[in-house]
Amino acid sequence: MIWGTIHRMILIDLVKVFVLSLFALTGMIMMAGVIAEAMKSGLGPMQIAGIVPLMLPSLLPYTIPPTTLFAVCIVYGRLAADNEILALKSAGVHIGLIVWPALVLGILTSALTMWLYIDIIPSTHFTMKNKVIADVEELLYTMLRKDGRITHQKLNVEIHVNRVTGRKLHNVIFKRRSTDGKGFDTIVHAKEAELRADLAHKQILVQMRNATILSGQAGGISEAQIWPVELPPDFVAQPTKNRANDMTWSELFQYRRKFLDEKEKLSREIDMHQTLINLGQGQPSFQEHIKNLVNQRKERDTLLLMVESEFYIRPAFALGCLCFAMVACPVGIWFSKNDYLSAFITCFLPIVMFYYPVMLCAINICRSGKVPPWMGIPLADVVMVFAALLLFRKLARN
Known about the structure:
It is built from 10 helices and 7 strands. It is of the alpha+beta class. It folds into 2 domains: 2-135 and 306-397, no CATH class; 155-231, no CATH class. The radius of gyration is 29 Å and the shape is flat. The mean pLDDT is 81.
């Protein structure tokens, strides 16, 4: 069958361009963006090598859609430039039969993206965060070797060193921030110090030797001193998942059921205490207790909105691949007389200026509870599909 052969040839070309472009785009973003930023953050080569395989799946949903767009623009622009599409239309072939390989590519890439979102991306993202945090001691040493100081705003201390030899810090200045956040209430200078992670108590222990301590108006000298530094939550590995984007598809259902049960339990407890108050049998602390329960129920509502939104966010982003392919096909054909880059930019710039901003705004609005997730999150995809149908209609008429 001649048409089946042509379709297979077009689809093979699409897959070739897509695979090559995907490797190139993902590699450039990984090397120029992610790895460079990780090195600036103080991660060492071994740490970066450990997190790159975990980081790659999370990057693919942002590189697969534009790669699909680029592949469709290139292949169909080349077909139109060689007058092959004109020849097929002259032979009585409807334009819908010509463009279905692009739709097949869009469906395959959407399915691939959704498959990644179901389990792989949430699992690797959660593992990557905990992997970096679990080696917090090495992370701090790397930052000290690289910058000679640690001044992270979420830590209640600053550490400045002259040099680092192995695990030893030389000429250390340790500053502890005051409780009001203005200035420092304790400053310590030590000739030598070492860091030791105590993750069980969520602390970093700074063991100082030959330390000079200045605290308020008092001062002193100590042969050895251990200073505990409280680690903020971002520096401590989380045993359980508390963010919706870290949950697998099956875990989203489990957490939704869990939050619904907790909300129902809180509602029953609120009703019980309010009934006792109405009957005059309540204790003075009941009113305050009800306020606390109401706040806890609001927290569960927020968590439920996050989970409910996630059920629509992942399919919406995955469907974007198909939407990009549908728009790129007619645009690539129309821009066949120009260079391929013009066709790609003509498609990509409106998408960047419309699709992603609308999607992100819809996600924030739905997470706040102002619009139901099923209505707001797919809006960008619906508009893209409508625009693609208009473009196909115009292409069929021409």
